[in-house]
Specification:
alpha+beta; Glutaredoxin; seven-stranded mixed sheet; 9 strands; 193 residues
Length: 193
């Protein structure tokens, strides 16, 4: 009887543990975007709720600063910032990197790409990069890789009401800015007046 009772307790504890670790439901278009409060490379702290009923927001998650694809994506967005800012939108790149890493990455004009021996020229980022070292926001958005080490390269488009209007999971780093501009137009994000 004691063995059966003890086994029942173990089974209950395991089931509670498994339930606690179950991932949140995957976000989809129309869902409210999870709020965040993250430090940025421009010295400010941004909160999604600050933009509600004011402007659309784009959060472009990237895996790791100073890597090849992320450098190319950052370069694309920096070189086309004037075209993106024609829309009434706040846009960010975001990662789980420490803030200091993202600050150095945002300011770099030449990047020694990790693991390649290559140097890539890029323009200093003219938009904020957000840091989520606790990984809480990455988890809320469902972008944290299975190994928990980095965010997946997904971009979330959030409307003025704080709802997800599009999720892009097929980012092409070299054309990320052009693709973002096209998507903002398709989503009918108003132009700046």
């Amino acid at each position: 009887m004691r063995v059966v009772f003890a086994m029942g307790l173990v089974a209950a504890a395991l089931s509670i543990t498994v339930m606690a670790q179950a991932p949140a439901a995957e976000l989809k278009v129309g869902d409210p975007a999870p709020n965040f409060k993250l430090q940025a490379t421009d010295g400010r702290t941004y909160q999604l709720s600050d933009f509600k009923n004011k402007k659309a927001v784009v959060v472009a998650w990237f895996p790791k600063a100073f890597t090849q694809g992320c450098t190319i994506e950052c370069k694309s967005l920096a070189e086309n910032g004037d075209r993106i800012r024609k829309y009434d939108v706040a846009y960010f790149m975001a990662s789980v990197d420490p803030l200091d890493d993202n600050i150095r990455f945002a300011k770099a004009t030449t990047v020694d790409v990790i693991g390649t021996g290559q140097k890539v020229e890029k323009k200093e980022a003219d938009f904020p990069l957000l840091s989520d070292p606790t990984k809480d926001t990455a988890k809320a958005y469902g972008v944290l890789a299975a190994n928990g080490a980095f965010a997946q390269r997904w971009t979330f488009y959030i409307d003025r009401n704080g709802r997800i209007s599009y999720i892009d999971k097929a980012i092409k780093p070299a054309t990320s800015a052009e693709d973002m501009i096209a998507r903002l137009g398709e989503l009918k994000v108003p132009a700046v007046r």
